[in-house]
Amino acid sequence: MRDSLAASNYAADGVRNLMVTLDEQNNYDIPAWLSTHPETGDRVDYIEELIVRQRLNRYTYEGIIRHREIKRRVAQLLAEYEKEQEAKEK
Q: Does the reported pTM lie above 0.70?
């Protein structure tokens, strides 16, 4: 997790925020010793420790430019596809 968190090109707290959301929505009360995965709260603590220890910028959205490029390309491909479908229908 340590290397992937730093190299993900996304905000360092993105995974942390996802885990917090999952923890808030967790309705299960399973003892940790019965679970095959760490408790979500423990995962949040671990990720927060990694962010501090690695001095990652929690508020920089490193992946946002790439994400916008992908969204733009997907929209372009969809428009081209829809145009082709319209042409086939005529």
A: no
